[in-house]
Amino acid sequence: MTQAKIGIIGGSGLYKMEALKDVEEVTVDTPFGSPSDALIVGTLEGTKVAFLARHGRNHHLSPSELPFRANIYAMKSLGVEYLISASAVGSLQAEAKPLDMVVPDQFIDRTKNRISTFFSEGIVAHIAFGDPVCPKLAGVLADAVDSLNLTDVNLHRGGTYVCMEGPAFSTKAESNLYRSWGATIIGMTNLPEAKLAREAEIAYATLALVTDYDCWHPDHDSVTVDMIIANLHRNATNAQKVIQETVKRLSANPPESEAHSALKYAILTPLDKAPTATKEKLGLILQKYL
Ligand SMILES: CSC[C@H]1O[C@H](OP(=O)(O)O)[C@H](O)[C@@H]1O
Ligand SMILES: Nc1ncnc2[nH]cnc12
Question: Is 85 annotated for ligand binding?
Fold first, then answer.
């Protein structure tokens, strides 16, 4: 199968990378079902990358329906080692304005209905997740944003992303609760993805693109999809520039990431005693430990 070391998962508003050249559509089947869409493999800045539209290219999958395991497994099967997520988020802090970008370094899990581990059916693993994004990849992403001097865009390095279940947006009480916890932004997708990427030993970082002030801000109406769409287009254009610059920097200087050996001390079940069917199912993820 075609290989690519860098993967990109595009969220709401980012369904395609315009600058990709020599594009090939790759349909991947995984032991965890089909990904959200075909993966688009092409060349960006002279480097092979794999792009996936998280909700499908026609945005037909809600956050609770996303096949997170299949998406990450599909990236792994193409050889992806660095995964960049682009995501629309609401802002929980006045200083993170619509059109701003945040490269979060923490997550809070408020999901209720997601499968966010590959490990079950006789094999138990507990990955370390104190630092849920790869600090080196996040650094490359943030430096790329800085280098572009985008109009009307402020960069926030670090911050806490609350991952809620959705699909309805938060109540004001919830939004204010998250603010009282010191959280910076809110979305519905990134936490399961970050956990699964870590289990798959893929370095993961997020470019969060602010679209709204959720519903807590006294001077702004509560978030609606219209409000989000108004900012998605500019955010998507900016995100593509940032991703292109990030790919250029990553391929020139691919960092060592602790994520690449995340399973080394995580697996509790002796693999020689583990069910063969599960070892086969986990295939590529477990391969180097068998
Ligand atoms: C379009 S508003 C809500 C929707 O947008 C974000 O998606 P993504 O992270 O894929 O950009 C948010 O998490 C919700 O799924
Ligand atoms: N306010 C918000 N809450 C959850 N997800 C979002 N995605 C974009 N804006 C959001």
Answer: no
